[in-house]
Amino acid sequence: MITTFELSTRIIFGVGSISSLNHEASLLGRHALLVTGKNSVRRLGILERAAFLLKEACIQTTLFDRVEPNPRSSTVDEAIALAREKGIDLIIALGGGSAMDAAKAIAFGLACEGPVWDYIKQGEYPEGDFLPLIMIPTVAASGSEANGNAVISNWEKHEKRVISDSRLQPKVSLVDPLLTLSLPSRQTAQGGVDIFCHLAEPYLTAADDAPLRDGMAELAMRLVTEYLPKAVKTPHDLQARTQLSWLSTIACSQFMSLGGRSGGMTMHGLEHALSGYYDIAHADGLAALLPAYMRNLYPVRRHRIEMLGEKVFGQTDGIAAVENWLKKNNMGFSLKELGVSEAKIDEMAAAAIVMSPWVKNHPGLLDKRVAASLYSDAFN
């Protein structure tokens, strides 16, 4: 088996690393589109800090602050039109995974000639270079700062789709744990669950054991389980925030594939249908699905589930260990508690298979019937 490793993003990590924004941006463009959400970064003063640094570097800045928690293709199209009107030559994301995914989709869409969703749905990727991207995460969760992937929703069609292109790999990511200190406990816990699932899914679905790959994932999962409760309980615990920021960046990067081919993110594919239909927080959907997902895997990946239990939680019953961990972090949900209608399960199952075609790589069968059964298991 041949493994190709390439991480072209320059990652500047550490307390105060946002101060590098003026220099790094000045190397990449003269007019930046600053992409962010509607409230949090402005409320916390982070937006003003970024704007000041860009002004200090004599970089003209156009703000786009209308990104939703599950970024919509119609919103991305609005940002693309604005970027064309202003002559943007650099895109900077400031926020959580939604802001970073939207920024990538904007860069993608600027190379397209029509609505971005048409290209995303058909898998038609435009030719040529994309505008350079800078990522500044304010949440330890998605890991979008270290990869070329983005997830975009079409709310009218209740679909979520993934863009994956090495040209969307950020040129620079400034990972500053200080920016996560004011994140409320609820969002902190959601971010930790997202990180854990990024590590657990490929670990559980892998077809074989690989000492380096498995060891890195086991260590990273143990660190998530250690530091997430500390950050939830004491939001200003900088050590805990720093470790979670490291884990977020590493979990979705190519580093986790070193040592042997890993499994797939098939539960993420199932969750996309949930948040595509109900616009729920991505991590809440993952938390509701994870125990049922592990029960589905047990007949074909019992060894991997028991390994996770022993190596991460110190107990053989990995499913019970994960369920208890979710509950301890107030993330033990059912789909019913998230407002999902049982009557929609079959429809969502069919949609998940279509919008996330990689679920066909799930160990064992994962068709519409099995997906519906898994949703039903997670419902109560």
Automatic annotation (TrEMBL):
* UniProt domain Alcohol dehydrogenase iron-type/glycerol dehydrogenase GldA: residue ranges: 9-177
Question: What's the protein here called?
Answer: Alcohol dehydrogenase, iron-containing
Question: Which InterPro entries does the annotation name?
Answer: ADH_Fe/GldA (IPR001670), ADH_Fe_C (IPR056798), ADH_Fe_CS (IPR018211), BDH-like (IPR044731)
- Keyword match Protein biosynthesis: no
| Superkingdom of the source species | Bacteria
According to the entry, every stretch annotated as the Fe-containing alcohol dehydrogenase-like C-terminal domain falls at 188-375
User: What PANTHER family does the annotation carry?
Assistant: ALCOHOL DEHYDROGENASE YQHD
What are this entry's molecular-function GO terms? alcohol dehydrogenase (NADP+) activity; butanol dehydrogenase (NAD+) activity; metal ion binding; methylglyoxal reductase (NADPH) (acetol producing) activity
- Species for this entry: Dehalococcoides mccartyi (strain ATCC BAA-2266 / KCTC 15142 / 195)
